[in-house]
Write a structure and sequence with these properties.
InterPro entries: HTH_MarR-typ, MarR/SlyA-like, WH-like_DNA-bd_sf, WH_DNA-bd_sf. Residues 6-138 form the HTH marR-type domain. It contains six helices and two strands. By secondary structure, it is mainly alpha-helical. The chain has one domain (9-143): Arc Repressor Mutant, subunit A (Orthogonal Bundle), CATH 1.10.10.10. The chain has a two-stranded antiparallel sheet. It is globular and about 60 Å long.
């Protein structure tokens, strides 16, 4: 197949995203959360103390959608919102022990999905792929 007839890289990335989303849904649904809620929890695991607006940007949803996600996760006891001591108008969001436990319960299944998806890549190729994907995301953000 020639390059001009090969599927676009953007199309291939979207196919991978949809396949991963389906597999993640099967893993997180029994825990009572959605893939989008799982994404928000993993972002908070890496960046505790974010505002709702920051979390929305990192989780790739609108601020309005994040309001519902934060409400649901808070109602489920998976996150806690506290007033920022430096800026009393700002609320920060962090995982609760239940949120940490839920992520731990999902970790081996998520690790398996990732291992299956990228089994054909060496460790250094996985690092390189991660770098390329981050570079692509950054380039799109900067050009927007």
């Amino acid at each position: 197949m020639t390059a001009e007839h090969a599927p676009r890289i953007l199309y291939q990335v979207k196919q991978v995203e949809l396949a991963v989303r389906g597999r993640l849904d099967a893993v997180v649904r029994p825990h009572g959360i959605t893939v989008t809620q799982y994404t928000a929890l993993t972002v908070l695991e890496q960046h505790p103390g974010m505002s709702s607006a920051q979390l929305a940007r990192h989780a790739f949803v609108s601020a309005q959608a994040m309001e519902g996600i934060v409400r649901a996760l808070g109602d489920a006891g998976l996150i806690a919102r506290v007033r920022d001591t430096d800026n009393r108008r700002r609320m920060t969001i962090s995982l609760t022990p239940a949120g940490v436990a839920l992520l731990a319960a999902c970790r081996s299944d998520v690790d398996r999905i990732e291992a299956e998806a990228f089994a054909g890549l060496s460790a250094s190729e996985r690092v390189r792929l991660g770098t390329w994907l981050q570079d692509a995301r950054r380039a799109l953000e900067e050009s927007h």
